[in-house]
Structures are given as structure tokens and as C-alpha cells.
Amino acid sequence: MNPTVGIAVLLTVLQAAHCQMIKDLSACLLGQSLRVDCRYENKTSNPLNYEFSITKDNRKHVIHSTISVSENIYRNRANVTKQKNLVCLYLQSFTTSDEGVYMCELKATNDYTGSQTKNITVIKDKLEKCAGFSLLIQNTSWLLLLLLSLPLLQAVDFVSL
């Protein structure tokens, strides 16, 4: 084998290793919906595939996925948003029957090292409400508008004095 080809193959394998790493998995209530935030560090420009599932009664149920097929009972209630280093699952009309161990699985396209997974146990009575500040962060247009309007608000206070 040509040494140059061997080095190129080795570098490709090393680059593909650990293309993404789940940093944090958290859950909160947003009105009547469950929000599960899967934060990750991405070390590749390859497209990211995800799967949110729940394990209850010793059985895995796929809620929303680009890796496999979602179950019918969740299709009309679940949606996912993706932002830089964050994938969020929203499950509408969350009830105690939706309690269980939620899993976030991430896999970068052409990542031959496997996927990253993280679990969180979700019990409705123990969930906190989603913080207002994190909602602003997720909707950056509101945060930007707020930051841009601060000088105007200060100018109005100065003029009224």
C-alpha cells in the first residue's frame, strides 16, 4: 500500500471519529407541550440525523426521527426544530401517559463510528416550566429586537426628564 494513501485513509478515519457529541439533554414544560432539548457539539459539516424516542413498559417508541420511522401515535403531536448545536423536540398535549425515559440519538452522515445517545427520565409532576429567557434565546429575532430597542427606551426616559 502506498504510504500516502495509508496516511489519507488514517486521517479520514480520525476526522470521522466522534463527529458529534451530545453535551446535554434537558426537558421542560412549555404550556401543555413537552420540550426536550438535545445540545451537542458538532465537529463536522456533514448533515446531522436525529431520533427522539421514549422507552416505556420496556419498549422503545420512536417519536420523531430522520433515522427511522416514527410511530403513528406521535406523528401529529411531535415536531422538531434544529438550530446550531441544538435539536428540540416538541410533544404537544403532554400527559402522564407520555412519561418515560426519553432518548436523543444523533448521527452525522458518513460517520462510521456510530451514533451518540443520551437519556433523560421525564415525569410530568417533576418537570419545570421552560424559562422565559431560554425561549428568547431560541427565538433570536425577539432577543435582537429587545437589544436594539434598549437605546431607544433610554432616550425616551432622558427626554421625559
For this structure, the CATH topology is: Immunoglobulin-like
Count of helical stretches: 4
Helix-and-strand structural type: alpha+beta
CATH C-level label:
Mainly Beta
What form results from the Cα inertia axes?
Answer: globular
> What is the strand arrangement across the widest sheet?
1-2-6-5
Membrane topology: Lipid-anchor; GPI-anchor
GO biological process, one term: regulation of cell migration
GO cellular component, one term: focal adhesion
Organism: Galbula dea
Record keyword descriptors for this entry.
161 residues, alpha+beta, Immunoglobulin-like, four-stranded antiparallel sheet, 4 helices, 29% helix, globular
If you had to describe this structure to a student in words, what would you say it looks like?
With about 160 residues, the protein is of the alpha+beta class. It has one domain (about 20-130): Immunoglobulin-like (Sandwich). The protein has 4 helices and 8 strands, in the order H-E-E-E-E-H-E-E-E-E-H-H. Strands 1-2-6-5 form a 4-stranded antiparallel beta sheet, with no helix packed on it. The protein starts with a helix and ends with a helix. It is found in: Cell membrane. It is a lipid-anchor; GPI-anchor.
